[in-house]
Amino acid sequence: MTTRILGIVVALACSVSGTAGATTNLKRFDPVALQGVAEATAKNLLLPGALVLLRTPQGDFAFGYGTTELDGTIPPRADTHFRVGSNTKTMTAVVILQLAQEGKIDLDDPVSKYIPGVPNGDDIAISQLLKMRSGLYNYTDAPELSVSLDHNPTKAWTPEELLAIAFNRPPLFPPGTKFDYCNTNYALLGLIAEKLDGAPLAKVFQNRLFGPLGIKHTLLPANTSNAIPEPYSHGYLYGSSSYALVDAPYPPRPSGCGQGGNT
């Protein structure tokens, strides 16, 4: 998922007042101090660049720092594309709820009604996928996925390939009994949305979300593509992808590795 809203790091506060002069309990911010905090945070996290946008009833603040890639010269701007990652889960959930409002799906339906071959599929409700309570194995926890990403980071994975990894493992618990953050749930919901709307998820998002809301520079790439439109910010990972995928602790002195150029 890519968007052209902000840059590498984003801080955004939306105004909740009806007018700029409306009474608010928000404290006034110090632009100079905020800029110092943003720059210090970016440096501490070894980010090549950052862009911060803050909108409040007291006014707007925008600050760019660094560049869009290591040793680069292009600063991050408001038209810099970046991947929004798991924000697409919120978008997928909205589509599923729209479909439920339209009577095309019932949130109590079992996932097996729409997708065959899901472990415990007869007992997992659509609502349990939405709430991360399915008990399915999270494919991003699989060691072979980390190994593949480390050796072939440009591979474009299809939902079917990722689900096959999850379905090769037994469920972690009976549906509905626990909470477990699981990407498998939303890969399934995306396929269900495609099946019910009869279109690729990219088109579903465009027709149901981006178009009606007037969002012009946000898109979901095809699941066969790893491309991102220019200009875009470059992401970096210090060490194996497993640290990011399964929240494994970093080894001692990760910042030293980053400063040494190991990415």
Shape: globular
What is the share of helical residues? 25-40%
Stated plainly, the CATH topology of the largest domain is called: Beta-lactamase
Biggest pleated-sheet summary = 3 strands, antiparallel
In short:
This protein is mainly alpha-helical and 263 residues long. The chain has nine helices and five strands, in the order βαβββααααααβαα. The strands form two sheets. The chain has a three-stranded antiparallel sheet.
Structural description of this entry:
The chain has 263 residues and is mainly α. It has two domains: 2-81 and 232-239 and 248-259, no CATH class; 87-215, Beta-lactamase, CATH 3.40.710.10. The protein has helices at 31-44, 87-101, 126-130, 143-151, 159-167, 183-197, 201-213, 242-245, 254-259; strands at residues 2-3, 49-56, 59-66, 82-83, 218-219. The protein has a three-stranded antiparallel beta sheet. It has a two-stranded antiparallel sheet with strand order 2-3. Helix 2 (87-101) packs across helix 6 (183-197) and helix 5 crosses helix 6 (183-197). It is globular, with a radius of gyration of 21 Å. The protein starts with a strand and ends with a helix.
Topology of helices and strands:
Elements (H helix, E strand, L loop, with lengths): L1 E2 L27 H14 L4 E8 L2 E8 L15 E2 L3 H15 L24 H5 L12 H9 L7 H9 L15 H15 L3 H13 L4 E2 L22 H4 L8 H6 L4
Antiparallel strand pairs: 1-4, 1-5, 2-3
Describe the structure using short key phrases:
about 260 residues, about 10% strand, two-stranded antiparallel sheet, 5 strands, mainly alpha, Beta-lactamase, 9 helices
